Amino acid sequence: ISRPTHFRGVATLMGKLLNIVQPQVMVFGQKTAQRVAVVRKMIADLEYEAEVIVVPTVREEDGLACDTNTRDFTPNQRQEALSVSRALKKVEEMVASGVRNPDRLVAEVTHILGDFRQIRVIYVSVVNRETMEAVREVEVGKCLLAISVWINEVRMIDNTLL
């Protein structure tokens, strides 16, 4: 919703890659879950012969997801950015304790991120991990919580499987 033409571009780029390289396997990081959903749908719809493998997000020691967008953060920006991974951890704990209401999870993340003045939330959503459609109740193993924020002028995304 926040970038209506972005995934059309992703599909075009991935389609060209699939046509040129004709890979048997494509490996993506979990952090790019939305891209994975687009590519999987495209592979199924257009009957490509590639398998999609998703590997865990690579994280720094402090929990921040590795990303070229965040490597030049000031120490203060980095501290603000760490609130995203802390919010994801909190949601994981809530789901493990039995919370299944997406609105409750989104509210908790929004509350945590609201304490940081450099963060502007673009979206916080609980979605089906395959279709990226919003869900009414968390089904463990089938959903993820996705976050997108601005930290000053840097757009940052992250997510966690629920």
Oligomer: single chain
Overall helicity: 40-55%
Alpha-beta classification: alpha+beta
Strand order of the largest sheet: 3-4-5
The largest sheet is: 3 strands, antiparallel
Mean model confidence by pLDDT = 94
Q: What are the secondary-structure elements, in order, as H or E?
A: HEHEHHEEE
Radius of gyration: 16 Å
- Uncertain segments: none
Distance between the termini: 22 Å
DSSP E strands, number:
5
The percent range for strand residues is 15-25%
- Count of helical stretches: 4
Mass-distribution shape: globular
How are the elements arranged and paired?
Elements: H1 6-21, E1 25-29, H2 33-46, E2 51-55, H3 75-96, H4 102-114, E3 119-128, E4 143-151, E5 154-161
Parallel strand pairs: 1-2
Antiparallel strand pairs: 3-4, 4-5
Helix pairs in contact: 1-2, 3-4
